[in-house]
Amino acid sequence: MVHYDEITKTFHLKTKDASYVFCVGKAGHLQHLYFGARIEGTLNADQLAPSWPMAPGNQTMYSEDHSTLSLNLIGLEMATYGKGDYREPTIHMESDEGYRTFDFIYQSHDILHKYHFEGMPQSHKQETLQVTLFDAHHEVTCKLNYSLDHTTNTIIRNLEVINGQATNLTLDKCLSMNLDFPDADFDVVTYHGAWLRERHEHSHRLGPGVYKIDSKKGSSSNDHNPFIALKRHDAGETLGEVYGVTLVYSGNFEANIECSPHRLTRLNMGINSFDFKWRLAPKERFVTPEVWLTYSNQGLNGLSQHVHRFASTHLLEPQKERPIMFNNWEATYFDFKEATLLKLARQAKRLGMEGFCVDDGWFGRRDDDRSSLGDWWSHPKKHPKGIAHFAKKIKKMGLLFGLWVEPEMISEDSDLYKAHPDWVMHYPKGSIALGRHQWVLDLSKDEVVDYLYNTLSHLFKEADVDYVKWDMNRHFSDLFSRGAKPIDQGKLAHRYVLGLYQLLHRLKETFKDVLFESCSSGGNRFDYGMHAFMPQAWTSDNTDAFERLKIQQGTLRAYPLSTLSNHVSASPSHQVIRQTPIDTRFNVACFGVLGYELDLRRLSPFDRKQIKRQTAFYKRHRTLLQFGTLYQSKRDHDWLFWIVNDAQTEALWGLFKGLNTPNPPIEYVSIDGLKPSANYHVTAREQAENLRRFGDLVKHALPIPLKAHGTLFNQLANHVLFKTETEDIILSGSQIKHPGIRLKTPFMGSGYHEALRVMPDFASRLYNIREVNDGQSSNDST
Ligand code: DGJ
């Protein structure tokens, strides 16, 4: 709800729990007054605005008429440089005459219905408040857009700059929004990483100066994710005030969090101003991508839930259950023939998987990563009768067919490069920097986008694909667009993203029922710009269950379960050579969209049995695991994730151990989100330990004395499932929260008993919590 007070010229944007207030300031600037807990009753805007009866010392005053107003000391909805505000500006530009001072003054405002801008993905909006600001000296207009989502306390913002003068205007910084706070009592929470360790959560106390995160890599990248939380010092997982800022963009971005000398906090975010120069001819307009500002008074879990819900209802495709895919990458890498893939596919079907995706290596002459990107037709040795023929065989088995492509790239050794060397993004002096032996196609060119659309459409139709894994395995370098004017070279990085969005939009229009999964050397481009077209993304190339906990924990802060594609892979892990039990690998991967990518031909009978049970369990709980409400918490070495359904009648809860604690205390685990007075039945998913894990200790657990690692022992280990402890507890929702569920006593090193909870390093459990009516119990543990 937007309320405008004519007298005080104040805008009060109200959502369920939040108020966002700004006004037309004394000199006409759009002055930010407040963002936080909802203000009820009459708003006293004057109290929110700082005021100075006399000029504060050593500040630049706005004008003779406003001799006590310093733009450096007030909150602003949009900030420029040149009139005394020395903090990070939102936009910066230059006229042909060399003028760089711009001063935007309120002109008017309007309510727009279904505001939509061209070229970039965005949320669906009902009503938008558009405030028009004008710089009269240069006839430049700036439109600030605000839409609200009541239930998730989200304010959606972006801005537009329109050049009204008769000469050119060059933007060298044009962020999407500015957000000022009157204090600096925040922790800054960001999500950093690199290949194999994406989006690890990092938190630090905001201190004086500017803290910047960005990407210059061409994609949003795994260096920093375009999502930030500002958290009050006392806020935790479920309590306290937290603000989230999410940018819907897949290219170079920046976010600045500044604590000024007067302890004012400024946060702004948008397209990276580094290497950005956008010339606007007379009458041209530049539109920035969307940012979501989300408020929660229920800690980081509350914030995540709001962002997840908003994204799911306003940006992502309607919630449709996702299949369990098998992917051959870690099973074969490039080394496969059609016969191998068919064997894997048959196994996948037997084990309960629902689709088969052929990863890298099926096309051109690609036997390693040095050739063929761009040649999107079947590799004659691998698929002698063509990929469409192979796809038919897969479908005949009752599996969906998926195909890996990396359309934005080109290999030097490819037919495409021979035909179109000028389509490569590179400046024509010297050799081009390589990433995985490949180059980037210049998607700022319409002809490249058209070519890719036509080639991929043909391929997807011919192979009748159900699923596409869209990869992108290197960062930009040698930035130059051949044929573009020198003055337009600074547009390249953003134009590339616009070209990519256009391509994806056209493909999605043509292939409405195909499920696209985004990927970029693992999770190198995990953002809502991509999610708007591809509802799920490959979270990381690191499929080690323990490392994956850190990655999923950070990713799940901003992205809902349905966006994370997680696969069970081999042990020892190919990324960290760590051994983890097959059940832990599943228990981690099932928080999101489950898949498998280990060599199914070489599974032990033990693993085969477990995988069959896992896929069956996942199918039964799929809706909850993909679309439920997520909570998370971390204590000591343990990780806890749980998911509750909308009706609060069912929850699944995962307990993950890092290293085992010797002689551990009795554990109570507190779970939030259930109905306090309803009764619930708590059971543990039936899991099994591999006897081999226990070595000689096995003689204490088995009724017969057995020599570890002997022939009989190995036989038994393959066939006997050593079941983990059961749980069978009835508790009310309030007792599940306080003091929590008392789990079976943990193993203490002093002997084995079947009622002990034996959890060696990297062990985990999955518990089912289901509402029961009096006397009735449920069991969904298998
Ligand atoms: C990187 C991806 O993250 C992997 O899953 C795999 O598809 C390879 N690329 C193939 O080249």
Give structural notes.
The protein is α+β, with helices and mostly antiparallel strands and 782 residues long. Strands 7, 8, 9, 10, 12, 13, 15, 16, 20 and 21 form a 10-stranded antiparallel sheet that branches. The chain has an 8-stranded parallel beta barrel with strand order 22-23-24-27-28-29-30-31, surrounded by 4 helices. Strands 6, 11, 14, 17, 18 and 19 form a 6-stranded antiparallel sheet that branches. Helix 10 (545-558) links the parallel strand 29 and strand 30. Helix 7 packs parallel to helix 8 and helix 10 (545-558) packs parallel to helix 11 (582-589).
At a glance:
With 782 residues, this protein is of the alpha+beta class. Strand 23, helix 5 and strand 24 (400-405) form a beta-alpha-beta unit.
Poorly predicted runs of 5 or more residues? none
Quote the distance from N terminus to C terminus. 48 Å
Proportion in β-strands: 25-35%
Distinct ligands, ions and cofactors found in the model? (2R,3S,4R,5S)-2-(hydroxymethyl)piperidine-3,4,5-triol
Q: pLDDT average, as an integer?
A: 96
Structural class of the helices, strands and pairings?
Answer: alpha+beta
Total number of helices? 16
Determine the fraction of residues in helical runs and give it as a percent range. Answer: 10-25%
**Biggest sheet details:** 10 strands, antiparallel
Q: How many beta-strand segments?
A: 41
For the CA atoms, what is the radius of gyration?
A: 28 Å
Shape: globular
Please name the defining characteristics of this protein.
782 residues; alpha+beta; 10-stranded antiparallel β-sheet; 8-stranded parallel beta barrel; 20% helix; globular; binds (2R,3S,4R,5S)-2-(hydroxymethyl)piperidine-3,4,5-triol
